[in-house]
Amino acid sequence: MREAFSNVQGVYQIPSLPIGRYKLEAVRQGFASSQVPELKLDTNQTARIDFTLRVGAVAEKVEVTAAAALIDSETSTVGQVIDNKRIVEMPLNGRNFLQLAALTAGVAPSAGGRTADEGGFVASGQHGYQVNITIDGLNNSSVASGGPLGFEAQAVKPSIDAVGELKVVMNNFSAEYGDRMGGQIIVNLKSGTNEFHGSAFEFLRNSSFDGTNFFANRSGAKKPAFRQNQFGGTAGGPIVKNRTFFFGSYEGTRIRLGRSFTSSVPTAGCAITSVMVPRPPSPGSGSGPGSKRSLSRREYRTESRLVSEKLWSPLMS
Q1: Residue 238 and which of 42, 74, 309, 315 are 20 to 30 A apart at CA?
Q2: For residues 162-201, b (16+ Cβ closer than 10 Å) or e, as one string?
Q3: What's the CATH superfamily of 76-190?
Q4: Tens of pLDDT along 156-168?
Q5: Residue 307 has pLDDT above 50, yes or no
Q6: What is the Cα–Cα distance from 20 to 195, expressed in whole angstroms?
């Protein structure tokens, strides 16, 4: 439970609240209390809840049971919240939550970019490396560098089952979002509660459920092997009731992939190549400009239709 006191103008603040559902109550001596029985707070949301207290006995209570959807009147940022239901239930190849950013207007896949295979995207007309990602307030953005690190869309990729909610902010950024001009991904991880909860999962893809590719089918080759297993689980619960909690997750990925390669080989008629090369002059015939040289035929066995310059050029023989 959190308590806050208003100033003489009636303004109050309750900062740093985790996402979730809350019950609010305003009380003042000599006035009837007022309640909001349920308020859903989303990621990075600044909600404004106004109370009107009327003079009455302490035993009286005013309860607001129906209210219009909250309008973000406190900030100018424009974005979209993707809740846990869509995160868990949407089919995602590779179980990468960044793919859900495509549900937001103004977002497009980073076609041809180094981070495209890891869910990288472009937003607001900016480069893919201008996307900023934070997890529970910590910077999780990728780093443009050489090697495998440069192909990652984020520094650490948490499991989908560990993500509670995320928000995609598109424009009108405030200074709190850091130094990147592209889209902002704000991720909130799940936390433990007063009860123990856990989950386990296993996702399987293999060649038994896939058709063969065009090149293997055309050449009559076997279907390339493919095995992909993604497995893991989550667990959370209390350490000190109502005060300290724990939550952890694990996800493992195992991929065994076969590939098809096609190439051209020479026919029987192209296996032997005849080349005319100059025959060295006989002893005593001289080597001046007027000396005579004869040509002889030499055969070379090749492994392709192309003969290197060293073999066919008389100057290199």
Answers
A1: 42
A2: bbbbbbbbbeebeeebeebbbbbbbbbebebeeeeeeeee
A3: TonB-dependent receptor, plug domain (2.170.130.10)
A4: 888 989 998 888 8
A5: no
A6: 16
Specify the pTM: 0.64
Give residue limits of the domains in the chain: 1-74, 76-190, 191-262, 268-316
Token pair, residue 223, equals 């279907």
